[in-house]
Amino acid sequence: MSASTDFLVPPAQRLIQNLLRTLRWPLLVGLLLSVVLLGLTTGRYSLTTGQILQVLWDAAHGLEDGSVDTLVVLNVRLPRTLLAALTGAGLAICGVALQTLFRNPLVSPKVLGLSSGSALGGALAILMGLSGVLLMGATFVSAFGALFLVVLISNIAGRSLMTIVLAGIVIDALFAAGVSLVQYAADPETSLPAIVFWLMGSFAAASWDKLAQVAPALVIGILLLNRLRFRIAVLAKGDDEAQSFGINVPHSRMVVFMLISVVIGACVTVSGVVGWVGLVIPHIARMFVGEDHGRLYPTCLLLGASFMILTDTLARSLTSAEIPLGVLTSLIGAPVFVWFVR
């Protein structure tokens, strides 16, 4: 709200708005730290906050004692929590970047077929026995191919908001059919269970090695997308206006697409197909900061990381058997989005 209309707001409401504006970042950072601590303490082997802090303090000073507490925190829960945070932040910032670039609040990595595209590349890689960096490379190439096809179809059809969504639905269905075909061809005794488990989404296989493989791509991609947030906003205004700002439109758009594909590919590599995060989190962030891109992107990062850690904690804690992550995000995200639509 502008300063010229502040006098129209009741004093109590204005005080609350100013207080929330002042405490926004401490609250978001506090939320993230709280869910990190919740993720480290919650599980079949319960730990107190004091035990967690003691283990982290000892690890920071090279005093690990090899106890069960240390092994659970440092070798199991901490890498899993960090992977969940990076994945949630990556999916959220890709969602807000795509919604801005296409000027469509319904756009997300899942809606545009990027998740299914990454899934096809990953499923083919698993079928061929690939893992690690090769698996991530396959998901990136496939995700970029899906996004390229969506842009191509929407340009041919007029690039309206409706054609972008429809193109995404078509490409998502096409790549999903490809995933089904790979599952049909997979060996039911070996590769098929691995593909199915991976597609349903989970951080159960999280480790420091896996974190080291994907963290560079995720961190660099996230930071560059955040740095390019104003350029993305200018690109959304149209080619002519972007060129008037001295922006090389084809080059800039290709760079953004490649960064989004890298981040989505890295996320799908470690978590499988997880929907709704890139669609819902940007809308929640806008409730806090509006459309100011300088604050919207960092807010999406913090909320996306917090949401994914919390969802993963629920997935491994609600029942004796771990709930697939993609199922849980859909159960949470779909009702929230219906509320937004309402």
If you had to describe this structure to a student in words, what would you say it looks like?
The chain is built from 14 helices and no strands. The chain has helices at 11-41, 49-60, 68-101, 114-127, 133-156, 161-185, 191-200, 208-227, 229-235, 239-244, 249-271, 277-289, 293-317, 325-341. Helix 3 runs antiparallel to helix 11 and helix 12 packs across helix 13. The chain is globular and about 60 Å long.
The fraction of residues in strands falls at: under 5%
Tell me the radius of gyration. Answer: 21 Å
Shape: globular
Largest sheet: none
Could you report the average pLDDT, rounded to the nearest whole number?
A: 87
Structural class: mainly alpha
Strand segment count: 0
Distance from first to last alpha carbon: 23 Å
* Count of separate DSSP helical elements: 14
Low confidence ranges: 1-5
**SSE pattern:** HHHHHHHHHHHHHH
| Helical content band | over 70%
What's the structural blueprint in terms of helices and strands?
Layout: H1 11-41, H2 49-60, H3 68-101, H4 114-127, H5 133-156, H6 161-185, H7 191-200, H8 208-227, H9 229-235, H10 239-244, H11 249-271, H12 277-289, H13 293-317, H14 325-341
Helix pairs in contact: 1-3, 1-13, 2-3, 3-8, 3-11, 3-12, 3-13, 4-5, 4-6, 4-7, 4-11, 5-6, 5-11, 8-11, 12-13, 12-14
